[in-house]
Amino acid sequence: MRLEEARIAVDEALSAYRRCVEAEVEEYGPEYERVTFMEYEAPAPDPCAEAFLRLVEAVRAYEAAGGSREDLDLGRERKRVYEALDKG
Question: What is the 3-state secondary structure (H, E, C) of 25-77?
């Protein structure tokens, strides 16, 4: 995968993750924190967790293509993405 294609994949994965979180916030309103905690504890798949994993994999592919994670604008997700990447 070329570097530019990998960067586009990161941007798309980041947008998908943010849309997922925004939809959950809108759906659950003030109960969002409680519901996301319950989703985290439950065995059922969490679509936003899956979207986040796709984001992490896109950043990993970007690095494999020769890019540096510091060059990506991950915004408020930066710390969580870096932690996930560093865990392996």
Answer: HHHHHHHHHHHHHHHHHCCCCCHHHHHHHHHHHHHHHHHHCCCCHHHCCCHHH
